Amino acid sequence: MKNPQRSPTNPGSLRSRFTHVFLQSLLRIRKHNPTSSSSSPHREFLKRCSQVKVAAYVSMARAVGTRRAWSRATIWRARNGERRRNLLCRRCSKSNSRERSLGKKKKKKKKKKKRDNEEHGFAHEKKLQKLVPGGEAMDFCCLLDETAHYIKCLITQVKVMRSIADFYSL
Amino acid sequence: MSSRRSRSRQSSSSGISDDQIIDLVSKLQQLLPEIRNRRSDKVSAAKVLQETCNYIRSLHQEVDDLSERLSELLANSDSAQADVIRNLLMQ
């Protein structure tokens, strides 16, 4: 029997670890993006927004460490995502947008058929796989386990971000 | 422990027992705010998965909104010293 008292996410230390790492990331973002006059302040704002968002997810993954598949996937994506983006971004964006618009139309038809056929609880498995980092490589059992842990960590992340935002806005 | 191991060996060849899935689905159910408030045991696995997807999406949306708010606050805050002090306080 699994020990029910075993809690890999000890909420006290996870929360403080995440807060520490995330605050350091925020300071770094602030240093590297000085709010001096620029030609496009809106672009600067969007860039900073996405940096903060990525920092939040990566900070939580780092606080969790490598013992969870979703945190490993997040850290891996962060390390390799920038390289991929720099290489492929401009060239593929146009072609990808065309492929996605075609793919979306095809996917809608497939979804309707799937709903008719699969009336078990596993019909939403693929949706869930896309939402949880690294989910596409997991079997159903692991996916459920990782999802439960991921949700707990997301809740902590949101609480800490909200308290930081409230603290800064005082 | 041994009884569960023997059960899993006897059940499907895929290696995942129904009991495990039921346990995991009920564990997820406890985390979802809507289903937890209803306090009904008669929630199908499909419903739990659907609510899980919706809940994760709403959490992602909250993270997006909070990131916007934080990046605005970062832009507006003047002193870097205040950041350092706050950082120390948070520790």
TrEMBL record, chain B:
Parts forming coiled coils: 56-83
GO BP, one annotated term: regulation of growth
Keyword Nucleus: yes
UniProt key word Nucleus: yes
Name of the protein this chain belongs to: BHLH domain-containing protein
Molecular-function annotations in GO: protein dimerization activity
Record PROSITE patterns: BHLH
Classification via Pfam families: bHLH_ILI (PF23174)
Cited InterPro entries: bHLH_dom, HLH_DNA-bd_sf, PRE
